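Contributing new records

If you add data, match the layout below exactly. Sequence lines come first and carry their own label; structure lines follow with theirs. Keep one chain per record. Anything else will be rejected by the validation script.
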Amino acid sequence: MRGSRGGLAVLGLRNYRLSWPVLLITSMGQLMWQFVTSYLIYSLTGSSFLTQLVTVAYWGPLLVFGVFAGLLVDAVDRRRLMTISVEVMALLNLATAALLFAHAVNEWGLLALTLAMGIMLNLNSITRRTFTFDLVGRNQFLNALAFDNIGMTIGSVLGPFVGGLLLDLYPRDVFIGAAASYAFMFLLYVLAGWMLRSMVPNWVQEIVPAAIATALGKVQQGLRFVARSRTLIGILGITVLFNVAWPSRFLLPAFQAPLGISAAELGLLGAAPGIGGLAAGIFLAARARLARPARYYWVGSAMFSCFTAVFAVATTLPVAFGALLVSGIGQTLFGTMQTTLIVLSVPADMRGRITGILSVAIGVMTIGSVVIGLLAEAIGPGAAVLLIAGLVTLATLAWTAVFREMRHVGLD
């Protein structure tokens, strides 16, 4: 019982209680946008490659701007950054809904809007990692991240599930069902902006100036810091491998016809990883302390890619759902420990820079998206996902064996 009470203590912080629903909303919005937009583009074009370009547009800003966004996070008030990003995302959802109601946008317009959404989403995501530390402090940081992952997994359940339901309400006009999804998220983002503005600042943020003239020098400092640490190289390597396989999640529309399922059932399938992740998140949040956090990290990554490969060969909805559910457990174990191991392994004045580098590693998913999309066009979606996920599983196990230092990281 002591561990449970210790794990729940973070909920006693008012600002964190306001921050958590914001995370839930942004996570739901992220997955709903990606699910609905991918469904729209696949419906319009029938192209697996163009469908994967949604992931490229959405997450590409991480690869291009991630490190510099990390500098911005260190140099500017983090709550203000989060508020601006959430309110811009609200406007983008409203604009997209209006264009779809008017039938005035095609696949390329949707990709351009997705790129704009991705810039704001990734700025919000990078800021969030360090802002959580500001809110709760070092002692409760792991538990806060575990609750954050519960919020993200609930959002990852609700996003595709609600999106699928709304699409199925208007089967004769996919534009109208999609527009309803974006309009719904506009309202939720407005609520999130209000919650951020309602916080009473009671934390001290160390501002690290980031003049343009010195920005590259600070990036180089961060890269040198990583290069000297086999532990950080090991952690970042697992992140890169995970994100090569992760974009396969958004090729789901290509599996609708082979599985013979409706849009609502496809949304349920998209929610399966979140359901598994929710169970893992509750397990982590209820524990006051984890003795070997790195073990959850690399095992979770390998579990994700392994069961993604199982999904690729599934021929029925129950088997596909079960495989994605277990992959979601692995994803949450990986995701919680990824931020924990990075943030607690570096000095306070380096956190923004190193999380920016982490964001670049996550941004490798854009390369994975292109590779998976091209392979899917050449050998079929199922074979492409099976090949990539299988290779990533083997590479994850090999990387963990080489960088043993990472396996022994603990919390002081």
